[in-house]
Amino acid sequence: MRREEEIHKAEGKLGVLIPGIGGAVSTTFLAGVEAVRRGLALPIGSLAQMGTIRLGKRYEYRAPSIREFVSLARLDDLVFGGWDIFSDNCYEAALHAKVLKSEDLEPARSFLEKIQPWPAVFNQAFVRNLDGSNVKAETSYLELAEGIKADIDTFRQKNEVSRCVMIWCGSTETYLEPTDVHNSLRSFEEGLEKNDPSISPSMLYAYAALTSGIPYINGAPNLTVDIPAMEELAEKQQVAIAGKDFKTGQTLMKTIVAPGLKARMLGLTGWYSTNILGNRDGLVLDDKDSFKTKEGSKLAALETILQPGTYPELYGDFHHKVAISYYPPRGDEKEGWDCIDIFGWLGYPMQIKVDFLCRDSILAAPLVLDLVLFMDLAQRAAMTGIQEWLSFYFKTPQCAPNLYSEHDLFIQLMKLKNTLRYLMGETQITHLGLDYYYQS
Ligand SMILES: NC(=O)c1ccc[n+]([C@@H]2O[C@H](COP(=O)([O-])OP(=O)(O)OC[C@H]3O[C@@H](n4cnc5c(N)ncnc54)[C@H](O)[C@@H]3O)[C@@H](O)[C@H]2O)c1
């Protein structure tokens, strides 16, 4: 790991490679970046662009913006390319996604029209509810991975980028149990030669990225880089990996509310979460095996935050249920309901209802931007392998195999900011503060 002056500066262009570039999240991200670049909008929701970081003692009143404190790529230096199973250019795809109004898309029209998805690596066994024709013709996994690498090389040369980052904004793949083929790089590469059915398309993209020296971020709950084989490859190639599943609507709320309940030692008997959404992601999740992948990701947070083993009287027996219903009239404007049954003093029951009328892609787009910028920073700082400090952005944060993930949003934020302080040689902030009152 490099620190302070040794961190390579963010010079030259940063290539952003996106599998699923024609999707709702991706096109909303792209249109938003262009609007910010043209001064038409603020990057609302982006910690990297709008956040500040407190440094030193409170009486020093030092709180620079994060983007001044660390060297991040400038938005003007970002260039984009990616793959999708549909051949619509990103303007047509954004119209189809119906997230942004036409008046917000129009200024970015010529920019979006120029982004034409490259043919994808796709296998319908992993995304049953979609079928597109913009796919690579090869059938051998090794050839497909080589095809992705060739796309990357062409993009790099054409745009003269100095660095790249890949971020998966593609559909959620069907549920996969880790098997022997995922257990080591050697078994994975043998699996590639045999077209092993436990290797999904997202793993081929990740393999192509890592072997090209490009960090990989997983925005969906797919296994992808969360397997020993990819962790080994990332270490071997000295590249960064992070995942998985953007933490946006309901799980964001869950990881805000649950730490508060626990902080006050209020008990929980049940947490019922349901969603209606009608975008293409909702259509994909309407397949039970894709939902199973998402369900696991959505269920993980509460157990870890509430620690039932440590607090059996409060959290030893709570019922947690998560459902998603595909309901086309809502499009991207998801509604997430939470019915939370809690208990307090003398066991008296109480209820909390959360009805979050959110917009899925509006919440996800700034996360894509931050992850791209911070992963590029990690790579320039020679931070290789799993980037747990970015767990702030994920529903199921990937961490070292001997650890449990940290889900509490506020601990995640502290971890992220302390990592930035550490990289820049600043003192960690512990919030102890006794030295303001007692001199030792
Ligand atoms: N929007 C959110 O709040 C949110 C939160 C967490 C995770 N996610 C995840 O982010 C991903 C994108 O979400 P979205 O709403 O944009 O979905 P979307 O369906 O609009 O976009 C996904 C795109 O991926 C494409 N695709 C599927 N398989 C592909 C492949 N093998 N190669 C290339 N392209 C492929 C699809 O054609 C589609 O255009 C999904 O996996 C979703 O579960 C989204």
Q: Which regions are unreliable across 5 or more consecutive residues at pLDDT < 50?
A: none
Radius of gyration: 22 Å
- The percent range for helix content is 25-40%
Main β-sheet, in a few words? 7 strands, parallel
Describe the structure.
With 440 residues, the chain is an alpha/beta fold. The chain has two domains: 4-246 and 361-423, 3-Layer(aba) Sandwich (Rossmann fold), CATH 3.40.50; 250-357, 2-Layer Sandwich (Dihydrodipicolinate Reductase, domain 2), CATH 3.30.360. 38% of the residues lie in helices and 16% in strands. It is built from 16 helices and eleven strands. The strands form two sheets. Strands 3-2-1-4-5-6-11 form a seven-stranded parallel β-sheet, with helices on both faces. α9 (201-211) runs parallel beside α10 (228-237) and α11 packs parallel to α13 (288-306). The model has no long low-confidence stretch (mean pLDDT 94). The chain binds nicotinamide-adenine-dinucleotide.
Task: Supply database-style keywords.
Dihydrodipicolinate Reductase, domain 2; single chain; 440 residues; 2 domains; alpha/beta; seven-stranded parallel β-sheet; 16 helices; binds nicotinamide-adenine-dinucleotide; 11 strands; 16% strand
Brief synopsis:
The protein has 440 residues and is α/β, with parallel strands linked by helices. It is built from 16 helices and eleven strands. The protein binds nicotinamide-adenine-dinucleotide.
Q: Could you give the topology of this structure?
A:
Layout: E1 13-19, H1 24-37, H2 47-50, H3 66-69, E2 78-84, H4 90-97, H5 102-105, H6 109-113, E3 118-119, H7 141-159, E4 161-168, H8 185-193, H9 201-211, E5 216-218, H10 228-237, E6 240-243, H11 250-263, E7 267-277, H12 280-285, H13 288-306, H14 312-315, E8 319-326, E9 335-343, E10 349-357, H15 360-380, E11 385-386, H16 409-423
Parallel strand pairs: 1-2, 1-4, 2-3, 4-5, 5-6, 6-11, 7-8
Antiparallel strand pairs: 7-9, 9-10
Helix pairs in contact: 1-4, 1-15, 7-9, 8-10, 9-10, 11-13
The structure holds nicotinamide-adenine-dinucleotide.
Nicotinamide-adenine-dinucleotide is lined by residues 19-20, 22-26, 83-86, 97, 120-122, 127, 130, 132, 169-172, 201, 219-220, 245-246, 248-249, 279-281, 284, 360-361, 363-364.
